Each structure stands twice: as structure tokens, then as C-alpha cells.
Inverse folding.
């Protein structure tokens, strides 16, 4: 029956609909490597490549390697590509999955929502169907939290970005607001049984020295101060963007007023021409500069800045919660 | 009194006092390479990267596996691969140099001596790390060795692998994530407050332990002081 048997060509032609990405499964090894790399070079920002497998709705990240810090030089670009190829080839020889599934980068106090991030995403998306970006914040980890996030651009945002169209109506059409740009994906950590066994064996020895005291330290001033500084800068950026919009709207209304005036003039001219029996002139004149449509400034920047602001606020919230618990703890200890 | 004509087999004592510090990343790496090894290979061999601290401790920070072929009488190591990986790693972190090599499996075998000699040509006094992935004695044994030369008078006899103390330390950030690294799966990374809770529980447990310890010591002292022998031992 023709309906049941499909030719190979037909099957190959139908695109599979990929199930949506629900969770990112990272191996403990990858987390340690990312931490080590970012911590060593902090406060400089570093990046690296993630390797793994794409299985159904789970993206497994099984290994990673760091990128050397690149200077802004044209010939070093080729070296960077060479390095990547070399690393992937070598890792394949020892049976590591050499499938790129994304990249990781370190950030400073959570200020990672930039246009470069989006551009890198688009670059990766052209080659890989599903990629993820893992962001690690070494400064927050000094506060005692494992600050690891897995991010992905939402599909609707990607379509919009491809058309490079961020005007107000388009965004309202798609019902896209600043929350919808980045999607955070929950992270699951997995370890091979061998590693678990080793870690459980090796852990017992010195619980006293290995306690994570840093989480309990009372001084959070520097962290909060930096956060507030960045927050204030972001608010400045936001107000600048808003000024741009105000300027645009003012120009737009001025242009419309000019257009109306010109139209009126044309109409009266036409009436007088009709009375004189001549051809009426067209009511539109595309060559006249006042009819040139003004470009609406893109809302992308303001969206990104809003994202950053919300990030900082969340961080401050978290730290405040922690500090309160610490203070209560100290109070209880003192009462004893 | 032995005549001075007799020569004595000298074991130079561990006055070299080399000790090594191993970061957990290295162990994770080695285990991962072991799990992924080719089916016919029994063990995995690779290079250790790190640095030597000013007080002589060797700080082992990173590692990578090197493909090798091992048969009963000879060992072949892919030296090109080893150099390529070294160059790639040094592009990222030029301060990490070769400090030794690792192998999985318990103890030291005959082939290891040859490999150790190769590494001794790359760096002076390499450290050999063995990670017992087979859990031979029912426990996880990670041992470090350096090679000491056995000499009989003036003649070189053999090289002996002598064990050195190892120290497994974790950097602060790694310590934070340790709970996440131990079990086989963790469903989500704990956020700020949950992490706080875990830390406070740990602190509480610590305080309890210390309390008990102090109580015990005081109890024993009290016992000693009230026992009849005390004044006699003065």
C-alpha cells in the first residue's frame, strides 16, 4: 500500500519535530572543570566549549575544554580555530563525546545579558540544532552558592532576531516581553558510579577542615556594594534608552504635523487648480523628505538591560536572605 | 665491626620529603577516562599537570589520558598525542607544566618503570599517581610514588618506587559544590537558602562533635584526677 510504505527519500525529507529541551544533565567532572577554569582567571572573563550528547528532551553535557584567552588580532583567529579542532581530535581518540552542545562562560556579578551573547547563540544555532550556554559566576560562588545557570534563547525571540525587527508592534504581535528572551533550563547533575564511590570514600577524613565556612561569614558588604553599583549603572542605561524613545516619538509627531500641513497645502492648491481646470497634483509625494519614514529605535537594548536589572535584584534578594539567617544564627549562639 | 671494604645497599631515606597535593578534578578526570577506555585496554595511563610550590610540594591540578598499548613485554605510548595535548593545555594555562603521570590499577607494575623513565626525561623527579579503580582491597586507594635510585656503592642497581604522602584538598568553590558532586544524580542545584541550611546543619554537627570531644577529655581528666594513682604518678 502506497500509504504505508514511504520511500527512503520521503522519510529523510520529513523533519523530525524535536521534543522541547526540558533539562540539562551535567556531569560532575564538567562542573569541576568549569569552576577551576573560571576561578583561575577571575576576574577576567573566560569561555570554553561544552561537549556531550543530545538525547530527546535531555541535553547531556559530558565533557568540556577551555578556550585560551584571545587577543583581538586577526591572525590569532585561525589559531583559535586550530586549537579547537586539535582538542576535539585528541579528545575523540580517548573516546570522549566530541559533539559540541554549547559553550560556557564566566561572568561578573551576573552581568551577562549582552548583545554578544545573543550573537554567539545565533552563530551556534546555525550549526547545531540545540545548544545551551552555561554561565558561572565565580564572585557569587565566593558567597557560598554554586552559581551555575543554563540558558537558551527562546524560539520566538530567535525568529524575531533573524528578521532583525524589534519594533513595538511586532513585539506586541508576538506577545514578547523582556522575560521571554532567555529561558533558564534546570540543571541536573549526574556522576558515574565509580566517581561516587571514590568521593564517598575520600570524604570522611577531615570534616573539620573541610567545612564550608565561607558561606557563614558575616561580611557581605563588598558583594552588596558591587551589586548596587552595577544596578545603578543599569538604571542609567535604561533611562538613556527611554530618552532615545522619547526623542523618536517627538520627532515622529513633529513629522506627522509637517505631513498634515503639507497635505493641507496640497489640497488647497488642488482646489485652486480644479477651479482653473488643471490636473490635480497627487496628494502624496514620496520624494519629499518629510514623508520619509523614521526608523524606530530597536527595543533590544532596553530588554537586555531590564533582564540584567532583574538579575541583580534577584541576587540581592538571595544575599539578603542569607545574611538574615546568618544574623539570626549569631544571635542564637550569643544567647547560649 | 665491618671492614670498610664492605659496601652496603643504601636506601636513601625519604629525606626528599616530597609530598603531593591532588585536586579532586584530577581524580574525576582519571575516573572518567577509565570509564571511557577502549575495551581491550586494562588500564589508563596519562600525564599529570600542575606546578611545584616553593616549599617542594607538588601541586597536581589537571590531567589528560594518553593512548597507549601494553603487552606483556613492551609498552608503547603515543608521544605525539602527549605533546599535542600538552601544547593545547599550555595555550590556556601556561603555568601548568608536567609534574608526573598517572595510571589506574593497584600498585606498580613492571611496565610502569619504563613509562616512569620516559617521564623522567621530560621533567626531573616525576610523581607517579596510582588510582585503584578496581577497589582491590575494598577501599579506594590513591597512592603517589616517586622514584628513588637504589645504589650499591657507586653502581646504580634499580629504581625503587617510594610512596609519598598525598593530600586531597578542595578549593573553596569546589567545597561548596561538593554535595552536588557526591551522589550519582542530583535533581537540582540548591539555591541560596537551601545551601545556607545545609551549611548550618553541618556547623551544628561540628559544634556537637567538638562539645562531645571536650566533654570526653574533661571526663577522662576527672577520672584521672579522682583515681588513687594520680598523686603517686606526680
Amino acid at each position: 500500500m502506497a500509504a504505508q510504505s514511504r520511500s527512503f527519500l520521503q522519510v529523510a525529507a520529513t523533519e523530525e519535530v524535536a521534543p522541547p529541551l526540558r533539562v540539562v544533565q551535567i556531569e560532575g567532572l564538567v562542573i569541576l572543570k568549569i569552576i577551576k577554569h573560571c576561578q583561575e582567571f577571575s576576574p577576567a572573563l573566560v569561555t570554553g566549549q561544552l561537549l556531550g550528547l543530545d538525547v530527546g528532551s535531555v541535553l547531556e553535557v559530558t565533557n568540556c575544554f577551555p578556550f585560551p584567552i584571545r587577543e583581538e588580532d586577526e591572525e590569532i583567529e585561525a589559531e583559535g580555530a586550530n586549537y579547537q579542532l586539535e582538542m576535539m581530535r585528541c579528545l575523540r581518540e580517548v573516546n570522549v563525546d566530541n559533539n559540541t552542545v554549547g559553550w560556557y562562560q564566566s561572568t561578573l556579578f551576573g552581568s551577562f545579558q549582552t548583545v554578544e551573547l545573543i550573537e554567539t547563540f545565533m552563530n551556534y544555532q546555525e550549526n547545531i540544532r540545540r545548544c545551551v550556554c552555561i554561565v558561572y559566576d565565580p564572585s557569587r560562588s565566593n558567597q557560598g552558592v554554586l552559581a551555575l545557570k543554563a540558558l537558551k534563547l527562546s524560539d520566538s525571540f530567535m525568529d524575531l532576531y533573524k528578521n532583525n525587527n524589534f519594533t513595538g508592534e511586532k513585539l506586541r504581535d508576538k506577545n514578547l516581553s523582556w522575560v521571554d528572551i532567555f529561558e533558564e533550563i534546570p540543571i541536573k547533575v549526574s556522576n558515574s558510579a565509580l566517581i561516587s564511590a571514590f568521593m564517598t570514600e575520600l570524604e570522611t577524613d577531615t570534616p573539620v577542615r573541610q567545612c564550608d565556612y565561607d558561606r557563614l561569614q558575616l561580611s557581605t558588604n563588598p558583594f552588596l556594594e558591587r551589586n548596587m553599583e552595577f544596578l545603578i549603572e543599569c538604571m542609567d542605561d535604561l533611562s538613556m534608552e527611554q530618552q532615545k524613545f522619547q526623542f523618536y516619538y517627538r520627532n515622529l509627531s513633529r513629522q506627522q504635523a509637517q505631513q498634515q500641513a503639507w497635505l493641507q497645502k496640497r489640497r488647497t492648491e488642488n482646489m485652486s487648480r480644479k477651479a482653473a481646470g488643471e490636473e490635480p497634483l497627487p496628494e502624496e509625494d514620496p520624494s519629499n523628505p518629510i514623508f520619509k519614514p523614521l526608523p524606530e529605535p530597536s527595543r533590544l537594548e532596553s530588554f537586555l538591560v531590564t533582564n540584567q536589572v532583574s538579575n541583580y535584584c534577584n541576587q540581592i534578594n538571595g544575599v539578603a536572605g542569607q545574611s538574615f539567617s546568618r544574623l539570626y544564627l549569631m544571635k542564637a549562639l550569643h544567647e547560649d | 665491626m665491618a671492614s670498610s671494604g664492605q659496601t652496603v645497599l643504601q636506601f636513601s631515606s625519604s629525606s626528599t620529603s616530597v609530598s603531593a597535593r591532588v585536586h579532586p578534578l584530577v581524580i574525576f578526570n582519571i575516573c572518567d577516562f577509565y570509564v571511557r577506555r577502549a575495551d581491550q585496554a586494562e588500564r589508563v595511563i596519562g600525564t599529570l599537570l600542575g606546578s611545584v610550590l616553593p616549599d617542594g610540594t607538588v601541586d597536581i591540578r589537571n590531567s589528560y589520558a594518553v593512548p597507549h598499548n601494553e603487552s606483556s613485554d613492551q609498552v608503547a605510548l603515543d608521544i605525539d598525542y602527549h605533546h599535542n595535548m600538552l601544547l593545547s593545555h599550555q595555550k590556556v594555562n601556561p603555568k601548568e607544566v608536567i609534574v608526573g603521570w598517572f595510571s589506574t590499577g593497584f600498585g606498580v607494575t613492571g611496565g610502569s618503570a619504563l613509562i616512569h623513565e620516559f617521564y623522567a626525561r621530560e621533567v626531573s623527579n616525576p610523581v607517579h599517581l596510582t588510582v585503584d579503580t578496581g577497589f582491590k582491597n575494598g577501599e579506594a586507594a590513591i597512592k603517589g610514588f616517586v622514584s628513588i635510585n637504589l645504589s650499591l656503592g657507586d653502581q646504580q642497581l634499580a629504581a625503587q618506587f617510594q610512596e609519598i604522602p598525598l593530600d586531597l584538598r578542595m578549593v573553596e568553590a569546589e567545597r561548596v559544590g561538593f554535595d552536588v558532586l557526591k551522589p550519582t544524580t542530583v535533581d537540582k542545584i540548591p539555591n541560596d537558602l537551601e545551601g545556607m541550611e545545609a551549611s548550618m546543619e553541618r556547623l551544628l554537627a561540628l559544634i556537637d562533635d567538638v562539645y562531645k570531644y571536650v566533654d570526653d577529655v574533661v571526663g577522662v581528666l576527672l577520672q584521672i584526677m579522682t583515681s588513687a594513682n594520680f598523686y603517686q604518678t606526680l
